[in-house]
Amino acid sequence: MLSEVEGQVEGHQDGHGFVRRDDGGPTIYLSPQEMRAVLHRDRVRVRIVRYDRKGRPEGRVLDIVERRKAPIIGRLLHEAGIWLVAPEDRRYGQDIMVPKNATANAVVGQVVSIELTEAPSMYSQPMGRVIEVLGEIDDPGMEIEIAVRKYEVPHRFSPETLAQAAALPDKLRPADRRHRIDLSDVPLVTIDGEDARDFDDAVYCEPFVRGRGKSRVEGWRLIVAIADVSHYVKPGEPIDADAYERATSVYFPRRVIPMLPEKLSNGLCSLNPEADRLAMVCDMVIDTEGAIDAYQFYPATICSHARLTYTEVAAVLANTRGPEAKARADLVPHLLHLHEVYRALLKQRARRGAVDFETTETQIVCDENGRIEKIVPRTRNEAHKLIEEAMLAANECAAGFIEAAGHPALFRVHEGPTPERRVTLQNYLRALGIGLHLSDDPTPGELQNIALATKDRPDVTQIHTMLLRSMQQAVYTSANAGHFGLAYRAYAHFTSPIRRYPDLLVHRVIKAILGEKRYQLDAALVASLPQAPPRRGAKPGAAKPAKAMSKELETWELAGAHCSANERRADEASRDVEAWLKCRFMREHLGEEYSGTVSAITSFGLFVTLDALYVEGLVHITELGGEYYRFDEVHQELRGERSGARYAVGTRVRVQVSRVDLDSRRIDFRLVRDAELGPPQTRGRGERARAASAVDELKSVQEADRAGKAAVRHKAGKKAVGGTAKAVRKTGKTPPRTRR
Q: How many Cβ atoms are within 10 Å of 167's Cβ, its own excluded?
């Protein structure tokens, strides 16, 4: 008997969809026909009706359990006498028809938020009404306004939260200082980026000596002071409810959607220089080998002695007689001690076998209108690494403290490679002739040894990419399973309660343990929001331990799933905005040629990252020449069957920007030549001329789009709308139309 399951629909821009099952099982394919009556993010009950040649299930929708009620963002269009909204998120698959009197005075081409008034069916398109007009697509910051609504990121605090924040004091009160250790004379400093506005951690280090003679122990005393958000954000209050709903701050270029109101995030809870602040302190003793010999937690009052930047501290460490060091002469000895303890912690990191890949991160620099001015590599200097190791040490202590007390909490868990990913990685390494051992139960040290042994190979980027892909995504959960990448037996987030709700919960738990009490997570708050779907790749029942959980642990587990899902949502929203900005940026470079490196291989083409611009685009497989290319999954390469031409991660190529699709966030390149093969053999003068003509034509089309001409759409789309209008006049019903 074929089974019936429930899950959430995930649409695809090509018209088909999938059902992400509630039980965590493999996703179920829905044909375009099945997708006619449902929309992206609807909850459905489906029956598995068949399996394809690879054993993947296909389903039929039996019932729609719940319609997604969130507004849909799109552009208002008027075609063939019909008003409709084309969803910005292509996964919705269908345009939404709007009655003439429901446009809220929006004009053609504007971005609007629409509420469904009539759901789609097998024989009709969805209907809706405009509830908010966001503005023109080219308005500064519009990409962020779209993203926060597209991904349903809460971006407005409730009136109750704003009122509560306004009633908070502007500075510490005498009552706030009670039962705290006064560390205001300790020269703690904050070290952050130049553009940071909230400072949630401060550090200090000094040499430490204990005992005499043979029992003498040398090392360092490392103090990590973290903003005590839990003193101001109490369970059951409006600020706490809003913070839990958001679960994390969301960072966009030039804008942040904070988890807490600005009065807290940039004021009372921010460790601003020369201002008394409340903090939770992790006070550690670290020996010369980097092992944490002892630690304690306590609430304190601190006063940051300076707001330092990574660039400034790196300059001091590089030259203790330079101008930066002279300007901070009183702090230089403490910074040198911080550097010493950092080098000791690095020793311990290497001894644990923690995984550490060198990757290139980029930073988008925008102009005053919010458009990309340039994209630059973000370099990690010694100051970045110093702070990172100090925070890791404090987080490890927090996890150990909670685990030793046997108190439930949220751990940051990162599990090792799944059996499937491990086999893929083993086959890949074997195919490359890399003889390093990778066991059936890999350890972090094994992956790190492979990374170190291959760092000088020409295909190092490809190898490190495969190592990264073999590992799972880190999550928040009440069941401690350690952190594979960092090689910690227990790990928890303690150091960023201003921007992460799990850190705030860890603070509350630590305070409860110190007070010999038990912190009860608010079950009503956790139950008040929709439950997050199981994470992808999870096996049925894998998220739960063998024995049944208590009600308390179930509440913690649900909170962890919520925080993990919202963390992924924040990442997706940020990536969407960055992709939009990059597409907008590359529209000005159509037809131009650049050198680049193949960054990923798929069965349908190559992803290439441009050297000068750090922008990634696709070279479709049809652009590789007039022969059949086979995707070799083991070697992660495309290989021409006739010529033997090979493309793998790391291959150097030269490409031309041929197409930019702002709606789908897609940049297409045309291969000009690569370092190994020369120019594509099948591209003659005529084809190159047609290619250049296509680029010119696309430029003119996109210029028209920028001028706000909403009529610039695919001819097929126009015909479909015209056909819809005729059908409405003739039958009174609207036949379904699937966007392509």
A: 8
Instruction: Give the amino acid at 694.
Output: A
Q: Which of 605, 695, 600 is nearest to 649 (CA)?
A: 600
CA–CA distance, 423 with 588 (Å, rounded to integer): 44
pLDDT surpasses 70 at 628: yes
Amino acid sitting at position 206: E
Is residue 544 helix, strand or coil? coil
Burial 374-404 (b: 16+ CB within 10 A, else e): ebeeeeeebbbbbbebbbbbbbbbbbbbbee
Q: What percent of the chain has pLDDT over 70?
A: 87
pLDDT in the model for residue 689: 40
More confident residue, 530 or 7: 7
Greatest mean pLDDT range, 207-221, 338-352, 522-536 = 338-352
CA angle 51, 55, 58 (to 5 degrees): 35
Q: How far is 13 from 105, CA to CA, in rounded Å?
A: 29
Quickly tell me which residue has 């389903």 as its tokens. 59
Contact between residue 608 and residue 617 where contact means Cβ atoms under 8 Å apart: yes
Alpha-carbon gap, residue 368 to 442, rounded angstroms: 49
Binned at pLDDT 50, 70 and 90, residue 631 comes out as very high
DSSP state of 304: B
Q: What does the alpha-carbon distance between residue 585 and residue 562 come to, in Å, rounded to a whole number? A: 35
* Element spanning 692, H or E: helix 685-706
**pTM above threshold 0.90:** no
Name which of 555, 497, 550 is nearest 531 in CA terms.
Answer: 555
Q: What is the pLDDT of residues 170-181, one digit of tens each?
A: 999 999 999 999
Residue with the two structure tokens 């698959």: 93
| Residue with the two structure tokens 């019932």 | 63
User: In the predicted model, is pLDDT for residue 544 greater than 80?
Assistant: no
Nearest CA-CA partner of 115 in 73, 146, 147: 73
Give bridge partners of residue 602 from the DSSP assignment: 605
The Cα–Cα gap between 464 and 462 comes to 6
The separation between CA 250 and the C-alpha centre of its own chain, rounded to angstroms, equals 9
Taking 80 as the threshold, does the pLDDT of residue 494 lie above it? Answer: yes
Are 666 and 583 within 8 A, CB to CB? yes
Record the tokens describing residue 447, joined without a space.
């992956």
Question: Per residue in 586-605, is it b (16+ CB within 10 Å) or e — as a string?
Answer: bbebbeeebebbbbbbeeeb
Instruction: Tell me the β-bridge partners of 57.
Output: 51
What does the pLDDT look like over 112-161, one tens digit per residue? 999 999 999 988 999 999 999 999 988 888 999 999 999 999 999 999 99
Three-class SS state of 257 = strand
Which neighbouring-strand residues pair with 219?
208, 287
Structural domains of the chain sorted by starting position, each given as residue range(s) with its CATH number in brackets: 4-66 (2.40.50.140), 72-137 (2.40.50.700), 159-401 (no CATH), 590-706 (2.40.50.140)
List, for residues 98-121, the tens digit of each pLDDT value. 999 999 999 999 999 999 999 999
Q: What token pair was written down for 226?
A: 């973290």
Identify whether the C-beta of residue 604 lies closer than 8 Å to the C-beta of residue 666: no
- For 467-488, the DSSP string reads HHHHSPPPEEESS---BTTTTB
Closest CA to 736 of 275, 121, 320: 121
Helices (H), 486-631: 501-514, 523-527, 551-586
Say if CB 252 and CB 150 are below 8 A apart: no
Q: Are 598 and 606 in contact (CB under 8 A)?
A: yes
**Residue-level pLDDT at 626:** 79
pLDDT band per the 50, 70, 90 thresholds, residue 533: low
Residue 560, phi then psi, degrees to nearest 5:
-65, -40
At residue 663, the pLDDT reads: 83
Per DSSP (E only), the strands in 516-665 are: 593-602, 605-610, 616-620, 629-632, 637-640, 646-648, 652-661
